[in-house]
Amino acid sequence: MPIKGESAPDFSLFDSEKSKISLSSYKGKNVLLLFFPQAFTSVCTKELCAVRDDIARYNNTTAAVLGISVDSVFTLAKFKEDQAYNFTLLSDFNKEVSSLYGTIYTDWILEMKGVSKRSAFIIDKNGTIQFAQVLDNAGDVPDFETINTILEQLK
């Protein structure tokens, strides 16, 4: 898992609109990466809706929010539409980025393997990780109080 002070591993993934997005394209902007287990599940929906409802805070700290799961682009497009998310959702269907960031369950519920752990990373304008939290319990949510404080300091 990448840790605070290290360069964030670059990646390219397709978003819910089927456009390929690279982390490196956000150079010069703070990024909040949020890995989540599965679209349409209760905790994921609640977490991402809270981010949606607080998007002005992230815009004010010049932070791009990127949500990442192993769901397909088609599932993420429906999830984004249904919940009116106002930030980018990326499909890590092949589980490469979740593995790269150390945020993958080998075993999850109902014998599912290779699902993203709920995690949060703040990457600053220079591409350096300023916060990393990987949660083993999918029922927990990232420490948004600390995340918001760090983003405020980075703006």
Can you put this structure into words, describing what you see?
The protein is an alpha+beta fold. It has one domain: Glutaredoxin (3-Layer(aba) Sandwich). The protein is about 30% helix and about 25% strand. It is built from 5 helices and 9 strands, in the order E-E-E-H-H-E-H-E-H-E-E-E-E-H. It has helices spanning about 40-55, 55-60, 75-85, 95-100, 145-155, and strands at about 10-15, 20, 30-35, 65-70, 90, 105, 115, 120-125, 130-135. A 7-stranded mixed sheet has the order 2-1-5-4-3-8-9. A two-stranded antiparallel sheet has the order 6-7. The two termini are about 25 Å apart. The mean pLDDT is about 90.
Provide a compact summary of the structure.
With 155 residues, the protein is α+β, with helices and mostly antiparallel strands. 29% of the residues lie in helices and 25% in strands.
CATH fold node name: Glutaredoxin
Number of helices in the DSSP assignment: 5
Oligomeric nature of the chains: single chain
Class inferred from helices and paired strands: alpha+beta
